[in-house]
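tool=predict chain=A
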Amino acid sequence: MAKTRYNPAIHHRRSIRLPGYDYTRPGAYFVTLCVQDRRCVLGEIRRGAMVFSEWGRIVAQTWTWLRDQYPYVALDVWVVMPNHFHGIIVLTDDVRGMGASVAGVGTSVAGVGAFFARVGASVVDVGASVAGVGASVVDVGARRDAPLRYDAPQPDAPPIKRKPLGQLIGAFKTVSTKHINAMQGTPGTRFWQRDYYEHIVRDERDLERIRRYIINNPRRWQEDRDNLTNIRRLPPPSVVEDYLRDMEGYAEDGEER
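tool=predict ok
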């Protein structure tokens, strides 16, 4: 049986930014980026875990670079997949004295609030609860970072201009693409699809279902809608709601309902 090839003119998606929303606001955002033409070049799934290629390792390193580069950025669970990336990025309220509680995020973000405080464990400590993650950046399924760090306040420092979510994702795409192109000697070549998917995390329940989805994504690769072997029965996503509908089939332990 002939396979239907991925055709960007057919299997495209619409821009899904929320009109009028201020994407510099503190809050948690679920984001997904896909490799151009959904090529599986970031690594492969072995026994339910993702093993990075050199390009996949660059993507992982660049994602954590965002947290180091921008003091108001924190990272929650994220995963590099063979042809796409899922992550939860948190924009915090206080850019100079973040502290362990991520001061000011709280109830101003429609109930997201207190769960940020629980993200502050070290990667090694959290690793055991995210099966097999630990401190490794090579053979990971999904990873939860330690985003909550303390930056001593600098009273005389000039205010930091906050980038909106789109510019942060743009920086991630630009930096990772530059390093990948340098590695393969293809300057100026597009690596990522033009846009990205995003979803504003509404509350703790929303956060937990997205975390489960990300953590279990590698072991469910065979059923993944981004896996092009499934394109006949499960078309690639066109909007973020396609991913959200997939999440509805996940029970508390990550198994299908």
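Residues 185 and 228 are 27 Å apart (CA to CA). The chain is about 25% helix and 15% strand.
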